[in-house]
Amino acid sequence: MKIYKKYVSFGEENILGKNGVAVIYPATPCAPLNCIFCSLNKNNPIYDVSNQILADWILETQPDSIEWCGAPDSEEAYEIAEIVRKYKNNCVFVLKTAGIDSPDYLKDGADRFFDIYLPDLKFANEKTSKRLCGDSDYPAKCHIALTEISKITSVKYDNGILKRGVFCRHLMLPGELQNTLEVLDSYKDYFLSFGWLLNFMSEYTPPKHKQPLPKNLLSLLSEGEYETALNYAKQLKIEIIKPS
Ligand code: SF4
User: Fold this and answer.
1) Nearest CA to ligand 1 atom 8
2) Domains in the chain, start-ordered, CATH in brackets?
3) Residue pair 106/118 in contact by the 8 Å Cβ criterion
């Protein structure tokens, strides 16, 4: 299998595990999107690893979860999930995607492999979506995927650790607060009642390889923007999970 990078992260939300999360990015993390702020440099080298090497790495690092950050509808996710099942059966498989996987793929994965869905809720409005990722249909596709996820998931915790369910993230971008507020509105209207978890990612840094960027994306997120989003979430009665 060709991968872009793999590492064990101890900075993920505690709810995903306290012994680290093994994060794997395949060679093509998100084929259909072209986010102008993407931090992944697609010109970086790609590594070829065998299933056995991945299995050894999982056994060696003993993570609580495996976070697979693949392209929507990626068959490789099944392959990795199978390795996880075979070599470390108590390890949770987390499907982290841009949130636009097809309903059939999601359903098939739920029946066979996926424990936790970790969609990144990017944009809730077509114009913003077109401007920032080149695809005005992203909000509609994301809505369809989340609706399917709402039908196929059940929530399970063990000692305060999420073992099955849905954990949404939203990357906040500097100068794009309106987008965040719209994402929260849409989440509240359609998905809040399912009791999922949501976190803001506030660590955006301007990617050097993506210059030139619009002026607002050349800076960091301000504390004011983050606080405003948190307060708005509170107003909507959406609980935001903080990273560990
Ligand atoms: S979905 Fe994520 S990985 Fe894909 S282009 Fe956008 S920011 Fe990059």
Assistant:
1) 38
2) 2-31+40-235 (3.20.20.70)
3) no
